[in-house]
Each structure stands twice: as C-alpha cells, then as structure tokens.
Amino acid sequence: MNTRMVNENFISTLTYIGKCKDPLASKERWIDLSGLEEKEAIAIREIESIGVGVTAEAQKVFNDLSKTKIESIGVGVAAEAPKSFDAFSKTYPIEQDLVVEILPVPVMRARDIIVAANMALKKKIFAQKISRATNGAYFLMDEKMRKVAVFKPEEEEDGCSRKGEKANREVAAYLLDFPKDSEEDGFGGVPPTTMVRCMDFKGDREKRWAKGSLQQFIPNKKWYVHGERSDAIFSIQDFQKMTLLDIRYGNTDRNQDNILNKEGKLIPIDHGECFPTEFDRYRLDWTVWEMAEIPYLTEMVEYVKTLDVDKDLEILRTNGIELGGRAVFVFRVQHMVLKLGVLGGNVPKDIGHLLTHPLSGGTSESLGTLFHKCMTRNPTDVTLLMDSLHDSIKGVLQWAREERVLRREIKSIGVGVTAEAQKIFNDLSKTLPVQWVNKDILVSGKVRIRSPYHDDCVTGGTATARNQIKAVLKKVRQELQLGTGGN
10 Å Cβ neighbour count for 1? Predict the structure, then answer.
C-alpha cells in the first residue's frame, strides 16, 4: 500500500461524494486533490531553498546566485532566449508552472492566485486584455472563468525610461504598505502584489516568459457617474490612509478610476506612477473631497511616527527593487513632507495643495518651486539642501495651517444667532465641514439646518446624512437642558 503524507494546509478543496459502509475501505473513500500538486511543489521549492546548518554567509551566497539565475531569464537577446528558457524550465517546468513568483520574499496570498491562474492556463483559459488601460494590462482567470489577478507585463510599459519601472513601483507600493494583517492586507489597503514571470498567458504561438507585476483582482462597485462622485460612502479612516500613501509615495496619478469600492471599503490601486523623479507632476484628485479638510485622526498620526525611510528602502532592496538615485532623493523628501504635515497639524488638503499646485494668498510656493530655490542656494551639498528644504516646507505648511484656521474661525461665528445654534455648529464642525449661510447652518455643502434648528428644519442631502445631523441636534438640546437645570 502506498501512503502519501501531506500538510493539511495544502488541501484547498474537499468534495463529498457519498457515504460508504466501511470507512477504512480505501476504494470507497474519495477526495478532490485539484491544485494539491501545485501547492506541494511550491512548498518543496521553498524548503529546498533553505540550507540546514549553514552559515548566514552561505545562505546569502545561495540567495544571490538564485536571484541572478532568475533575473537572467526571459526578455533578453533573442539568440540567448532558448538557452535561458531551457535553464529556467529545468527548475520550473512549463507543464507545471506557467506563472512563477520571483520575489526573494514571497507574497503568500499571491501563491493561491498563481495556482488558480496556472490551472486555468493549462486548460487554455488565456488572459483577457484590459482595453481601457494606458499600458498593457491583462486579467488572469481561474478555471471557472473568474478574474483572479491583474498582470502588467514590463514589455508593454509606456512612458518610462526603462522597462520594468512601473512594475517595480506597483510591487513597491504593496511591500511598503505595512503593517500587514492576518489576511495580508496592508495598512492602506493596497491589494497583494508581487513580481512574476508568466508563460503563454495570451495564447501566442511563440511561448516565452514575460516578466511583470501581478496584483489580486478586486471587484469594484461603481461609485461615480460622469464626474459626479459619491465619496461619502467611504470611511474617514480609509480616506486618510489613502492620502498618507499618496503623499508618502508621491503619487502622480491618483484619479477616481484607480480608487475601487469594495462594498464600501476604499481600495487604492494602480501605483505604477508613484515614486517619481521630479516634484511637479502630482495628481491627487482627493484634494477637493470634503473629507480632505478634516484633521488626521490619532491613529494616522501615530502611524506616521513609525515610518522610517531607510527601513523602507531596505525592504525594497531585499526584494530586488532599486528606485534609482533621483527617485530615492524625491522619496526622502516625500517622507519629510508627510511627517512635517501630519505631525504639524495640517489636514490632507493643506499637504495635497503643496504637492499639486502653488498655494494662494500670502505665498505662491509649491514643493517644486521650493526645491528649485533651495537647490540654487545649495547646488552641491545634499545635507544643506535637505536642511533648507525642511525649513522651507515647514514654513509653507505652517502658513497654510494658520490661514485655514483663520478662515474657519471667521466662518464659525454666526452673526445674530442663539447660543444653542452656535453650539450645534461647533459640535457638527468637529467631524464635518460646516459653514454659516446667514443664519442657516450648511453641512458638507448639501444639508441645510434652518432656525430654530429642530429636526423638521433639516433639509437636503441624503437620508443618512440628515439622520446623523438630527442625532447631533438632539444631543445638543439634551446637554443644554442639563446645563440649565432642565429635565
């Protein structure tokens, strides 16, 4: 009798076929082992890559050699392609793996996606090209024709100085989105993303390896129509986490198409345009959202305190990702902007405006103009340049904060209104953008509360928003009654 022992974690599907009289009768017991061999092969490769009882130096030599071998395969010179493919296929036979992860540090949830995509490709279920994508992007399917991942091959990247920049940045955005929870979801919600080589994903006659980024597919429920947004469906926590990511990464293309709605949870995607080499191409559409004027929550402030740019760069190097000298410098400045802004009490809109366009009023300085001025004063000394940038950025953010506070104070005083009305306004302003319109309170630019500020005086906006405001009105009336000795 042949016995094969497997770890229970490798069994992804059990199918109940029927009830047998004798539970020990092997011919009458059934189990669906679909996908078991693929997962077992992955585990064996992981075990084989760890030397037992060897020194750290020896293990590093092994890792460096294995990385060099993988990086030398695939998209090189045509004459070397057959030789490279033969060497690669000895480790990863095409019959076994059509999609292979190549990051030194594995993305565990990606393994299930890779197994599902491999099984589909073996059955000639090829990838579907995403027609609306600017660069080459493909949906990888599973056996049931369900979308499981988005693959972006390096060879189809446009608008970058060297192939692979955008794929590396897609992966970097996930690697640096820490800490990860038990489901491998990062702090900011970037879907699991890894670097892979994919074979025959389009069903081409010429079978060759294509390298690129692979990201878990997230179904999206449309949250805007013809430019009309419904961003109020997202929580303030999800919104602020996205802004932290965008400021930290220097996102140059955060538009509404790369913000997904997963049953009310905000999921940020498409980070190939992050980690720029300049300071003047940012696009952050969220600066006009109403939530952009709400101060950062304590949770966000504490998170920013933990960030360390040198640790970030080490994580990327460990996974074989080098941003490049100029991009590394900009990344360090982005960290500086994030910490000075969030820890200094600025709201997302303050920081977003510094990045995207000159501030109005007493100064006309953007991050780009600040950099060029500081560069003129310190053209060669990087330390002096960073110190000068630090002081200039701090000054502009402080000015923006003070001007915003002054505007809010002016708007927060109702002329000729009762103490009750002013208290209602103050309580609402703690969590929502509000302003006086004569003696009416306008909340989020949509809901209006008219004098005498009772439930039946609330109009406009959604039913949910009106109910939220009515709850505040009730609380204020109760507090005033208690304060005056009322019942």
Answer: 3
